[in-house]
Amino acid sequence: MKKLSLSVIIITMLFMNINCSDDDLPNEADSAYLNYETKSELELPFNEEWWVFWGGRSVRENYHAALKEQRFALDIVQKVDGSTHTGKGSKNEDYYCFGKPLNAPGNGKIVEVVNDIEDNIPGVFNRDFPTGNRVIIDHENGEFSILAHFKKGSIIVSVGDTVVKGQELGKAGNSGNSSEPHLHYHLQTTADPFNGEGLPAKFLNYYADGVLIEKGEPVRNQKIKNDN
Questions:
Q1: Which residues, including other chains, have CB under 8 Å from residue 123's CB and lie 6 or more apart?
Q2: Phi and psi (nearest 5°) for 13?
Q3: Taking Cα atoms as reference points, which of 202, 198, 192, 186 lies closest to residue 71?
Q4: Per the structure, how many domains does the chain have?
Q5: Which of 39, 52, 88, 118 has the most CB atoms around its CB within 10 Å?
């Protein structure tokens, strides 16, 4: 999501997750919001069941935790039989989540839309436009939702629109600093995706590995879906 420094972290963390010790990992970013209670009534911003690729409060389970604005961010994909794609995964259409609807996680006002960034070839990063196509929602209570990596041209809301929880925003894509189609989501204190303080995003009434969670934060390797 961030610029080149984050790209290096992403690639490094992919290897570190497999074969390095905790001593080699970066520290979690300092945060004054560890005990923060989410104000917005949030639901998972997608339909069907998805899988948390990166999520949690430690860098071992979530490389985002090293960055102050993405301290509690999530990267989410879809998996079938242990894979995020069919075949070799050489094109975006091979990926189960590519083109799937992405929804507003809560009520608010659209304050930024980027919709014209090309989708990457899987495995190729676009470091010039880290978030790729994105939607930013002002929940009008000091909380802002950042949703990134939409499919080019798929976003159907505009700046100034009022949206309600569950309303479709666009389609999952592979634009920006992204190695494969997925959703990046985080909650923060400002509308600038690179300048703010990350906030815990506690979602309401969802299933995690088949267990109903009334209010919680998804973590890495969980299968999650809304209770509807």
A1: 179, 180
A2: -65, -30
A3: 198
A4: 1
A5: 52
Provide the CATH number for the domain around residue 94.
2.70.70.10
pTM above 0.85, yes or no: yes
Which residues 6+ apart lie within 8 Å of 156 measured at CB? 168, 169, 170
Q: How many CB atoms lie within 10 A of CB 87?
A: 9
Burial classification of residue 116, based on how many CB atoms lie within 10 Å of its CB (0-12 exposed, 13-18 middle, 19 or more buried):
exposed
Helices (H) and strands (E) in the chain — how many of each? 1, 13
Q: Which residues pair with 50 in a beta bridge?
A: 224
Domain extent, residue 112, equals: 4-226
Q: Are 85 and 78 in contact (CB under 8 A)?
A: no
Phi, psi angle pair for 59, to nearest 5°: -70, -25
Residue 224, class by beta-carbon neighbours within 10 Å (0-12 exposed, 13-18 middle, 19+ buried)?
Answer: buried
Kindly compute the dihedral angle of the four CA atoms of residues 63, 68, 72, 74, in this order, to the nearest 10 degrees.
-50
Encode pLDDT of 181-223 as tens digits: 999 999 999 999 999 999 999 999 999 999 999 999 999 999 9
Spell out the residues 6+ positions from residue 224 whose beta carbon is closer than 8 angstroms to its own: 44, 49, 50, 51, 52, 76, 206, 207, 208, 218
Q: Where are the beta strands (DSSP E) in the chain?
A: 50-54, 74-77, 101-103, 108-114, 133-138, 144-150, 162-163, 168-171, 183-188, 198-199, 203-208, 211-216, 223-226
